[in-house]
Every structure is written in C-alpha cells, then in structure tokens.
Fold each of these.
Amino acid sequence: MPESMKILFLAPDNTLRYNQTGGAGTHIRASVTHLRNLGHEVVLAIGGDLRNEGKTVSSTNAPTKQKKNGGVKINALVPDELKFLYRDYKKKEINEEVYRLAKNKIEKEGVPDIIYERSGYGFNVGMRLAAEYDIPRCMETDVIMLDLIKPETSYLYNNWIYRSMERKKYQSADSITVQSEYSIQVAKEYWNLDHNRVYNKDLGITPKNLAVSPDLDLNEEYNLKGKTVFGFVGIFMRYQNIPILLKAAEQLKDLADEISIMLVGSGRDIEEYKSYVKEKGLEHVIFTGLVDKSVVGSYYDRIDVGVIPDCAFHMYPVKYLEFAVFGKTVITPRYEVFRRFYENDETYEQYTFQPQDSQMLAQRIRGVYNHVKEGGSLSNEAARLKNFVLENHTWAKCGERLEFALKKTLEHCRENKGRGKDVGVANK
C-alpha cells in the first residue's frame, strides 16, 4: 500500500486567502480538499492567511475603496507607473515576511515530504524553503500570466526582476504542473525547461457548490423577462478585456429591447467601464457588482449564453466550465485550447471569434440570438458540452492528476537526487 504524503501547499502571494471568492480561491480549496480525500496530509501556507492569522478577514476580495479628498480620488492623481512601482517595491518586504512565516509553519508542523507551490509573482519563498530544507518542489504555472499582468505592474519589475525570478523558480523546480494539455509545450518553451517533468492537471469544478437560490428573482431585479441574456462572471482583470465586450455591445444597440449583456463582478476599472456605457447609451448592459459566492449560481443559471471576452491563449478559465455545468453554450476567443470542447470545426467557429475583434464578437452574439429567435435551440450543444465537462473536469479527477504529478516528482528526486519519499507511482 503506497504511503501518504505530507505536502506543504504553498501560495505565497499575500493577496490570496484560503476562503476567498473567485477562481483562485476555488482552485486552492479544491486542490487541497481532494489531496486530503486521497489520504494525504496537507499543511497550508497561504500568504494572506499567514499574514492575518488571529485577525478577522473578509472572505471576499472586493476592490479596496480609495480615499477621497473633496470628492477627488487621491489615488487617481498618482500616475499608474508610480503606484505600481511602489507596490512592487513593497512586495519585497512582504516576500521576506511570508518567507519567515512559512518557515515558522514548517518548524511547527514538521518538514514536509514535498512542497506544492502556486507561484506568486515577486515571491521566491518556495525556492528558498526547498533549498534550505532539501525538500522536493513541484510548481504550478499559468505560464504567460506574467505577460498578461503587465498593465498592472511596473515596467522595471515586470520586465527585469519578476521575469528573472520566475525563470529561476521554474528552472530550479523538480517538476511543473499546468492547467491544460495544450500548456505543456508552451511551458517548456516559455521557461526554457531542459526536462519533460511537466504534468497537466487540468482545471475542474464542483457542481454542488453552484446552487441556485430560489429566493432570487433576477428577471424582476434587472428587467430581464423575455430577453436573451449574454453574460460574463468574474473579477474584471485587465487581461480579460471587458472593453471588447462593451464595444461589441455598442454594435448591438438595435437589439437593446431584446437582449441584455450582464457583467457579474467588479474590478479596479469598473467606474471607467460604467462611464463608457453611460456615454454610449448602452442601456442593455448591466453591471451587477460583486455577488456572494452563495448566490452566484443564480446568475449563471439566468444567463442564456456565456461570454469570455479574453483569457490566456493556452488555458481555459474555470468560468467556462461553470457555464457549461449550467447547460450554457459559451462564446470565446478563437484559441486552440478551446477546440477540444467542440464536436466539430463548424461548431467551434460558430462560438468563437478572433481575439481582440469586437466586431466579430458582436457578430457571434447576434448570430446566436438570431438562431434562437428563429426557433433554433442551443440545448443540444449545451447538453453535449455539459456532459463533456462533467466527465473530464471534476475536481476529483484533477486531484488524482495532481497526486500523480507529486508522486512522479518524489520518484524522480529519489532516483536521481538521493532524496524523496517512496510513495509509489501508478502508470497513467
């Protein structure tokens, strides 16, 4: 009988917390839960929780309100580059604090068999702990996110300090996990890896966590009765390109009485987006603001067709899977990573648009709406997509893949570096 592993689950980023809302929190909790369900001991070292132990911290991750002076947002007067530079510089201090707290956790809980690290930009905690205690380390990567977050980091740190640090972290790791099969080769090339220990664990979902609230009537609250609703759900990060969806909405003003475009969530640029909608008279665009995770299922349920304005080209977002579980078709950028979800090229092209092309996105929305208006059904494609996701993308399956990656990492370290616990590795 293979032995269980003692795993230090490290997520050093100070903005992360175990119980936070959004995709990152879901991803962390599901990974930990299923490793524990498989019989492994998982010790948590999550940046935000380490720094706030003993304090009362909200489970939401709503944008912090800015201080005002005479009605003017003081923060808005400071150029973004200076704000980003200061924030990135302060991260150096936070990195040292998280390192100290994570080291204390190891001293208290005992040295783990392996570190599983979710990368945090500007944090080298895992690399240092692995070297100090001689612990095998498996790192999770979303690969090109460093490029996607450029608009929200300083030029100096993103192009020099972060990039150099991230490359060193991945090249020194004993193995890597990625979140789609398509990402394996992308990761090897992006981080210039000289080995093949890159494992796909995929993203997953837990359907029971997406319940519909019977007390929430969104038709009445947002005047949606009789309308076809196209929607996005999530935190509005800049790389998700909400403006593309708003520009598409501008080209659909003639359908304002028949469709609604619902944006469920918020982000640092929300006021700018609202101003654009008001200026252009887009009465069919609805901003709900942040909603509690206990009721977000009701929003997925009411949306007729999901929309992903943009994402990393090599990995599908969790929200895509969540739309699918609710029996919804989803319009996405035409990235190869989405092709595996479609039965044929014709359907793939029907629900995808050229990235950054708001006109083509508007055409896809209009095409789907006209199909429904003319008596067509989306149910067959939606049902097929739902079944595919439920068969291939539950967190239980992802947990097994993650366990496999960790065991392979220990096997490699034991055979090639004289360290690493023998926990047995199944052939997959």
Note: The first strand starts at residue 6 and ends at 11.
Amino acid sequence: MTNNFNQKEIVVYWNDASLFSPKRKAIAVSPMETRGFIEKEYDDYYLIKNPITINRATQESHPQKQNPTFYLIPKGMIEKIEYQ
C-alpha cells in the first residue's frame, strides 16, 4: 500500500460493472469519469477522496442523489488516469 500522495487532482477513466443476476450472468458496463484525490493506493484498488463522477455515456452524475466522501475503484477496471 502506498500513502502520502501530493493531493493533486486526478481524473480516472474507468468501467463500472453491475451484475444483475448470478443465474442470468447479465453484466452491464458503464464508462465512468471520476475526479478527485488519491487518498491511498492498494495492490488492487485506488481509494479516491471527494470524488465527482459522471457516466460518460449519459453525462449524468453518479450517484445522482448523494455526494460520496470516497470511491474505491478497482485497478483492473481503470482505462487511464490523468494527473491535473
């Protein structure tokens, strides 16, 4: 685990996957864009502080009814990271 990031804003382009039913194995993937700050890096995840996320396909905020304090984004779902 890596800590003590310089608190630079980043933009993470990633894919959010939802499993609708274990029996049907229907998976929906949504392209997402999250702006925030890396709080911690783990082997398989980034913990993003104060995230602002939009669905790139619909341009809608995600989630729509709340502002999360943190997001945990799996590294395997990330397309790219841009440092601002």
Note: The domain at 9-83 is CATH 2.30.30 (SH3 type barrels.).
